[in-house]
Specification:
By secondary structure, the chain is α/β, with parallel strands linked by helices. It contains 6 helices and 12 strands. Strand 9 and strand 10 form a beta hairpin.
Length: about 230
């Protein structure tokens, strides 16, 4: 069954668009950044990673090349069709219940900032119930100036431009963000909802799911290693 577009989310450009406004063709073009190196430095070699919100497998494939075992989860069947070499599961992250646990659970792509509090709670609970005792959850947060340094743009070395065009409060602590991806032969846009979180709010959200911050993995504090709270 095809999922409906989420309220406040939309995307434009060539190819399939997912319910949260992501363009499959766009994400198939985006290069992998430093994420695989950050992850590899934080977890045991050969760990089994549950990647929540894997998309087309940009990070998945890089982790597989580094010797990790990956189970990739995404709500978009079109995205998962691009994943190679990993076990794939199509479904909503917040509803995931695999009856198994993993060395590492990864929630990247700023998903912890979902505009819907209940969706965020569901995602973090999914992280907590799928991480093994002694395992960890890796979470990617927004940068401190994500919502204030607007408009902004970055030219990627591979030849395309990413712009954050606008960022507007829409009530209840939620912002509507519009991004543009300008390639020589195509342009994609995505509009999505984001809920900024202070450090205290972030830690409270984790605690509600039975998790706590162990340490930050990067100087900008965008990547965080969390662990289950032990009694």
């Amino acid at each position: 069954m095809k999922l409906k577009t989420r309220d406040g989310y939309q995307g434009t450009g060539p190819g399939a668009i997912t319910p949260d406004g992501c363009a499959v063709e766009l994400y198939s073009r985006l290069p992998v950044g430093e994420e695989p190196d950050i992850i590899a430095a934080a977890v045991p070699p050969g760990a089994h990673i549950l990647e929540l919100g894997s998309g087309v497998g940009r990070v998945t494939h890089a982790l597989l090349e580094r010797g990790f075992e990956v189970t990739a989860v995404d709500e978009s069947a079109e995205m998962l069709e691009r994943v190679r070499g990993a076990r794939t599961i199509c479904g909503l992250i917040e509803d995931l219940a695999l009856d198994e646990t993993f060395d590492v659970v990864m929630l990247a792509s700023f998903l912890v900032h979902n505009g819907d509090v209940e969706v965020r709670r569901g995602m973090l609970r999914a992280c907590a119930r799928h991480v093994t005792k002694g395992g960890c959850v890796l979470i990617q947060r927004e940068g401190e100036d994500y919502h204030s340094n607007v408009p902004r743009e970055r030219v990627d070395p591979s030849g395309f431009t990413i712009r954050i065009v606008s960022d507007e409060p829409v009530g209840d602590g939620v912002h509507s963000v519009r991004a543009e991806y300008d390639f020589p032969d195509a342009v994609w846009t995505q509009t999505f909802r984001s809920r900024p979180l202070t450090q205290k709010q972030f830690e409270e959200a984790l605690a509600e799911a039975g998790l706590r911050v162990e340490r930050c993995l990067t100087e900008d504090r965008m990547w965080v290693k969390a662990v289950p709270v032990t009694e």
